[in-house]
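Look over this record as teaching material.
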Amino acid sequence: MKKVLLIGCGHMGSALLTSWLDSRKYHITIIDPLKYKILKKKFSNKKIKLINNFSKLDKSASYNFVIFATKPIDLNQALVNFSSINLDKKTNIISVVAGKKIEIFEKNFDNVNNFYRVMPNMPALIGESMNCIVSSKKANLVNKKEVEKLFSYSGKTIFLDNENQIDMSTAISGSGPGFVFNLIDAMEKAAIKLGFDSKTAKILVTQTFKGSINLLIKNNMTAKELVNTVATKGGTTEAGLNVMKTRKLHQTFTELVKASYKKAKKQGKN
C-alpha cells in the first residue's frame, strides 16, 4: 500500500480522509496537534496513525503523498515544523490550502520534483467532490496519474493548465457548494411562506435540484436550452424567470464569483 501523510485534518482534510479510508488503498498518518483528541475519538476504529506533534514523526519514514490541508494562516508554521523531514524526488507534495502557490512548497523542498495544488470541495464527504488539480512543471506523468487516482476516490478530477485557473476554480467549484446551498435555503423558505411545512419543503426543493442536475448531466442540452424547454410562453415558470431577470440574477452570480476569485488571489499573496 502507498503511504499518505496528511498535515492538518479540518473539514476538508476529514472529507478527503474518509474517502481514502473507504478505498482501503493507503496507509495513512495524520498530524494535527489541535484536533488530535477529536480525531482520535472520531477514527478510533480506523487503521490510521495519529500524531499530535511534529517531533514524534518518524524522520526516516518515506511517504508517497505528503498533503498539506492546514488553514492558510497555519501553513507557514507547518512548513517550518516539517522542513527537517527527508523527502525524495518521487514524493508527491500536495496542497489543498486555499490560495497558496506551488512555489511556496518548491522553496521549502528543493529536492522534490512533484508538487500539486488541488482544489476539492465539500461533497468529497460523499465521494462527489470536484477536484481541480495543477502540477509543477517537473512533475512526471506517472506521479500525476498516482495523484489523480488518489483524488478520484473522493470524486471527479480534472487537471488544469495553470495556478490562475486553480484560483478561478476556487470561486466556482470550491465556493460553489455554499452558493448552491444558499439557493436551496432560499427556495425552501419561499416554499414555507407559501404554506408548506419545513419537511415537505425540503423534499420538494432537494429533489427538484437533484433531478434537474441529473437531467443536465445525462442530457446533451445546455442549461439555457433546458430553461427554454421548461419555460413555456405565458406559463408559471416564465413568470418566475421574469422576476429573476428583473432582479439581475446572472449579474449577481457574476459579482459573487468575482468576489470569491479576488479573495482567492489575495490569499495567495499573504
Remarks:
- The first strand starts at residue 2 and ends at 7.
- Strands lie at 2-7, 26-31, 48-51, 65-68, 92-95, 114-119, 129-135, 155-159.
